[in-house]
Design goal:
3-stranded antiparallel beta sheet, about 10% strand, 3-stranded parallel beta sheet, 19 helices
């Protein structure tokens, strides 16, 4: 069993999406289930689970179940009590002010703060009758090479909600997780979570795989709004930090050759420029009708027209900015205003022409215009822009819309 446990607050960023993609690919390769865990036990947490699940769906990341961590609080509480019963955890009555003071002193001495076990060996009578707020802390490892790295950290807060590491450790036990694929920032949490499970007598060893930090991270939502295809974003995120047999691929193809162990351990830079190049190739591979939908149509000819503009556009947003002016009211420069009026009327009176060469010949013969007074205003009338692809290439796909374009 694998799990994807994204941050439930704010927009999903590409490092989280990359973790989701890697978990999905490995789950398919190993024929194991993938669950999504929404970690919603934090204080005053504003969960953004709907957007998370919508993004996973948009990227075709399949999972078998959604688990809300808050539903497991009764298990977190029960296991904290079990640890206390087994003398592996204790009540801590240290005030927040006292702990903050100790942390400040450690910082001033340029040391990492470690809890000093002040409450670990309190007499029973001082614990039973104590009405002050308390947390539950786990006993630090007594004999372990990690003993200096792990103090008696908090399992349950004063509000009796579980801390991140305790909840993760217990939830991974409950879900029988076998592999955890996560970012390098969670390396320091692993020893704490393993210590929790060992203290609870859980013998299964969970495999941890850490993927490198992505520098210059972006919101997935922002990338989508900017016109990057999910397939292109997936392509780029999978290829970061590893060798791929080809530059352009989809997730199904990646399942055949991807190896999580080969991922680089070094941080990687996210390049928008490289993503644009990959996105352009994925746009080329879209069905003509499908690409037309990104610019507001459902017409194969408009899809072919959009692909003509891929010479100068690399996102659906850029494509839309090229196609929309063709059908919008034209903003003709003053110098071409008179020529445009003549051309517009000539085109309205023209019969339908299959070929641009015949269309052009008719315009020349019936407008009396030539050179810059013909071709520049004609480009403005047909495309709404001064520059762009060859008009012959454009006409091929807009000829059936001439009546809508020339208003």
């Amino acid at each position: 069993m694998l799990r994807f446990a994204p941050s439930p607050i704010g927009d999903m960023h590409i490092d989280n999406l990359q973790v989701a993609l890697f978990n999905y690919i490995v789950s398919k390769q190993k024929n194991e289930n993938l669950i999504v865990r929404i970690e919603n036990t934090g204080k005053n947490i504003n969960v953004n689970d709907k957007e998370i699940l919508e993004i996973l769906s948009l990227f075709d990341i399949e999972y078998t179940q959604v688990i809300y961590q808050s539903e497991n609080i009764r298990y977190h509480s029960a296991m904290a009590l079990q640890l206390m019963h087994d003398k592996k955890a204790f009540s801590c009555f240290c005030s927040n002010q006292w702990l903050e003071k100790k942390e400040k002193e450690a910082k001033e001495n340029k040391k990492a703060y470690r809890y000093d076990d002040a409450c670990r060996n309190l007499p029973a009578e001082l614990v039973i009758d104590n009405t002050n707020p308390f947390t539950i802390r786990i006993n630090r490892p007594d004999e372990s090479f990690e003993s200096d790295a792990i103090d008696s950290f908090v399992l349950m807060n004063q509000e009796k909600t579980p801390t991140y590491n305790f909840a993760c450790a217990v939830d991974d036990m409950l879900s029988d997780i076998s592999i955890v694929i996560t970012t390098q920032e969670h390396i320091s949490n692993t020893s704490k979570q393993n210590h929790v499970r060992t203290s609870l007598g859980y013998e299964k060893k969970i495999q941890y795989v850490y993927i490198p930090t992505i520098l210059d991270t972006f919101s997935v939502k922002w990338l989508l709004e900017e016109g990057y295809l999910p397939s292109a974003i997936s392509n780029y995120l999978i290829s970061m930090g590893t060798k791929t047999p080809q530059e352009i691929f989809n997730v199904k193809e990646a399942i055949e050759w991807f190896t999580i162990e080969d991922i680089s351990k070094s941080p990687t830079h996210f390049s928008i420029e490289l993503l644009k190049q990959i996105n352009k190739e994925h746009l080329k591979n879209l069905d003509d009708t499908e690409i037309s939908r990104y610019v507001g149509f459902a017409d194969a000819d408009i899809g072919k027209l959009a692909k003509v503009y891929l010479k100068e556009a690399r996102t659906t947003k850029e494509l839309k900015s090229k196609i929309e002016p063709i059908f919008a009211t034209k903003n003709i420069p003053q110098e071409f205003m008179e020529s445009s009026k003549v051309l517009s009327q000539t085109i309205k009176n023209a019969p339908f022409f299959e070929q641009y060469s015949d269309f052009k010949k008719y315009i020349i013969e019936n407008s009396g215009l030539k050179d810059e007074n013909l071709f520049e205003p004609l480009r403005y009338l047909l495309t709404g822009a001064r520059n762009g692809p060859d008009i012959a290439d454009v006409y091929k796909y807009i000829k059936n819309y001439i009546g809508e374009i020339i208003k």
